[in-house]
Amino acid sequence: MRTNRTHGPRAGVRQQWAAACLAAFLCCGAAANEITEFWQSRDDASTASVDHSAWQAILDGYLRTGHPSGVNRFDYAALKANAEDAAGLADYLAALQAIDPRTHSGPQQLAYWINFYNALTVHVVLADYPIESIRDIGNSWVLPGPWKDVNAKVAGQELTLDNIEHDILRPIWGDNRIHYAVNCASYGCPNLLPQAFTAANAEQLFEQGAKDHINHPRGASFTDDGDLQVSSIYDWFQEDFGDSEEGVLMHLMQYADEGLAERLQSFDGDMTFEYDWKLNAP
């Protein structure tokens, strides 16, 4: 299989991304390992649960599903205009930060961090809204966007969105379906799901998110030239999908509907990558 990376982000932008990621790795690798180690503790004998009803209320009120495009939208403008509900989101995030999730079971922690990430992303976007893209905000010298800005503090530890996704969720749980659970407020991202994650529904939502994204054109589709165009997620995080393009294909086939699966089975052409950073607003 030949890989064509000229589609999607320009080659120069991709090189800048790679260089920035390398710099971040060299500077922060040790710190990332320490963060991961800190958050690995859990108490699977604990029966305590985390209340995510406030986040569910936000999703019920402001997530717009059913669009013909298949892309869920979040109504940031409406939420920003409702001071009471915006304060409710802030209160929910404050309540999460008052919890030490390490005293909870693993399934409770998983739901905690996914909901935390998604709610915090909405909160961060809301603070700067109106914007055209989440990449228009943030103070990072590495890459545009808020992912390396400290926006939370839990158990005395300052946290960025990147810490939650790349130092906690991905390394501790080792489940590539996490990419379908965390939402980056962009059209190219897997849908923000209308249900808050819980210990009981996480597996079902993982499966739903993977199937929904892969069977949507922004997940995987064929161009008029017969190339396979897939989300840049499978390029940026290929290590989570078998660390090869063949591994990506196997993952896609696992969740593809019958027609797409048949085309993937016999595919032997160019794989291209695409991602739309436009804000997922109505």
Give a quick set of tags describing it.
282 residues; alpha/beta; two-stranded antiparallel sheet; 46% helix
What characterizes the major β-sheet? Answer: 4 strands, mixed
Number of strands: 8
Rg over CA atoms: 19 Å
Mean of residue pLDDT? 91
Our measurement of the CA-to-CA distance between the termini, rounded to an integer number of angstroms, reads 38 Å
Query: Count the helices. How many?
Result: 10
How would you write the strand order of the largest sheet? Answer: 1-8-7-6
Integer count of domains: 1
Structural class: alpha/beta
The multimeric state of the shown protein is single chain
- Beta-strand residue percentage: 5-15%
Q: Helical residue percent?
A: 40-55%
**Which consecutive residue ranges, at least 5 long each, have pLDDT under 50?**
2-19
Would you list the SSEs in sequence order as H and E? EHHEEHHHEEHHEEHHHE
Structural features, described:
- This protein has 282 residues and is an alpha/beta fold.
- The protein has one domain.
- The chain has ten helices and eight strands.
- The strands form three sheets. The chain has a four-stranded mixed sheet. A two-stranded antiparallel ribbon has the order 2-3.
- Strand 2 (63-64) and strand 3 form a beta hairpin.
- Helix 1 (11-38) packs across helix 6 and helix 5 (106-128) packs antiparallel against helix 6 (161-173).
- The termini are far apart.
